[in-house]
Amino acid sequence: GGFVFALEKRGYVKAGPWTPEAAAEHPEAGADIVGVNCHFDPMTCVKTVAMMKAGVEKAGLKAHYMTQPLAYHTPDCCCQGFIDLPEFPFALEPRILTRWEMQHYAREAYKAGIRYIGGCCGFEPYHIRAVAEELATERGILPEASQKHGVWGSGLEMHTKPWVRARARRDYWERLKPASGRPLCPSMSTPDSWGVTKGHTELMQQKEATTAEQLRPLFRKADGKH
Ligand SMILES: [Zn+2]
């Protein structure tokens, strides 16, 4: 069996103890695998699991550690993560991590002692390949899909344009700050914060389709917020 906690970004289980204590003191403490899934970006999840690991070890317990973060940058998220972002769920593309950022994530997760390093919403096959490639030495194997390209852009060595050939190296991609190409867009959003949580009537699921009449007040409420 598994147990799922809803974590707020600042590291507290909702209305509960701080993450390190939660990992060790919850009645279900002693789980074989401890980690986090979804809702926040890779580095937020790595930091959270590092805190959980510290809590588990402080309690004298042992566990394996895992992360399955989003493939989206979420520096502007608060309590509920990316669900509160105005771009959720159909306009999140500008936030997607590059393959190089995924390699960074894999390395940091590994350094934090995490050995189940995966991904949740937004991950594409090339992201998982990047994770596997970053840890190829540790795993002693390259993923099969590495046959399709050269690592760290080495395939560009054969590019016709010399300035593109100049990008056939690791440090170029590691240092790059990719532009968004969207001059009228902000770099961060203001997350929705309706204060609606478990038990609230607006959160109740109904069996029938939502009617136009039921949606109207929600649209009005949303428009009043932006
Ligand atoms: Zn997810």
Strand and helix layout:
Elements: H1 19-25, E1 33-37, H2 42-58, E2 64-68, H3 99-111, E3 116-117, H4 125-134, H5 136-139, H6 162-165, H7 170-175, H8 212-225
Parallel strand pairs: 1-2, 2-3
The protein binds zinc ion.
Find the CATH superfamily.
Homocysteine-binding-like domain
Q: Name the overall outline.
A: flat
The level-1 CATH class: Alpha Beta
Number of helices: 8
Radius of gyration: 21 Å
Percent range for β-strand residues = 5-15%
Helix content: 25-40%
Sheet having the most strands: 3 strands, parallel
Order of helices and strands: HEHEHEHHHHH
Cofactors, ions and other ligands in the entry: zinc ion
- Which structural class matches the secondary elements? mainly alpha
Mean pLDDT: 88
Keywords:
single chain; 226 residues; mainly alpha; TIM Barrel; three-stranded parallel β-sheet; 8 helices; binds zinc ion; BHMT-like; betaine-homocysteine S-methyltransferase activity; BHMT; zinc; methyltransferase
Walk me through the structure:
The structure is a single chain. With 226 residues, the protein is mainly α. The chain has one domain (2-200): TIM Barrel. Helices cover 33% and strands 5% of the residues. The protein is built from eight helices and three strands. It has helices at 19-25, 42-58, 99-111, 125-134, 136-139, 162-165, 170-175, 212-225, and strands spanning 33-37, 64-68, 116-117. It has a three-stranded parallel beta sheet with strand order 1-2-3, covered by helices on one side. α2 (42-58) links the parallel β1 (33-37) and β2. α1 crosses α2. It is flat, with a radius of gyration of 21 Å. The N and C termini lie far apart (42 Å). It binds zinc ion (ZN).
